[in-house]
Amino acid sequence: METLYSAAAVVAAYLIGSLSFAVIFSKLMGLSDPRSYGSGNPGATNVLRSGNKAAAILTLVFDVLKGYVPVLLVLVYGPRVGLGVGTVAMVGLAAFLGHLWPVFFKFKGGKGVATAAGVLLAFNPWLGAATLLTFVIIVAFFRYVSLASIVAAVFAPFYQLLIWDANAIAGAIVVMSLLLVWRHSANIQKLLAGTESKLGQRAAGAHPPAKPHAKGSKP
């Protein structure tokens, strides 16, 4: 039964991770699909390029929660059915993979930064805080979210291995970090070329086209 519960938790986490809130909130708020402008990434940073801060904040919050909540539920209720640290690690990784390759959106997802942050915060609040602080410092100095994401992704497994345990959770963090850096390969090229967009920079095509005026109506 433990194997069944573990498998069910992992599948549920993947399905929750597959909810692309950048696309969902953009559609609900009448914005263009975030995959059609800017970096093409369905994430909070690209939604912010639409100029709609509310949509970006909602995307950020829910992308974090979809990584945080599945892990937290297993941590709280898992021990009752024999689920241990191995399942916790797999659930966190599954939620992250769901964001990268969402089954509900033709497996075309985002880079996973916010969801990874949620997973880390649930794994260990201190680890999550240290990684987020690294992210914030880089953003504050350089204004490049991509650069901050890469640096934080590189530091996260070192924090876990040097300060905490080298367990299954550490393995999940290493995999997430490697995937995060890989998903930012295009951003790395832009950073090297000096063409990467900074935080809050507006993107062309971020708004839906204006509807034509009806005949006889005033412009």
Description of the molecule:
- The chain has helices spanning 2-17, 21-28, 44-48, 53-77, 85-100, 113-123, 125-142, 145-163, 168-183, 185-193.
- Residues 209-219 have low confidence and may be disordered.
- Helices cover 65% and strands 0% of the residues.
- The longest helix has 25 residues, at 53-77.
- With 219 residues, it is mainly α.
- The protein is globular.
- It contains ten helices and no strands.
Short recap of the structure:
The protein is an all-alpha fold and 219 residues long.
Summarize the helices and strands and which ones pair or pack.
Blueprint: H1 2-17, H2 21-28, H3 44-48, H4 53-77, H5 85-100, H6 113-123, H7 125-142, H8 145-163, H9 168-183, H10 185-193
Helix pairs in contact: 1-4, 1-5, 2-4, 4-5, 4-6, 5-6, 5-9, 6-7, 6-9, 7-8, 8-9
Throw out a few tags for this protein.
single chain, 219 residues, 10 helices, 65% helix
Low-confidence stretches: 209-219
Radius of gyration: 19 Å
The residue-averaged pLDDT reads 90
> What's the story with the biggest beta sheet?
none
By DSSP, the count of extended strands is: 0
- Pairing-aware structural class of the strands and helices? mainly alpha
Strand content: under 5%
Number of helices: 10
Distance linking N and C termini: 67 Å
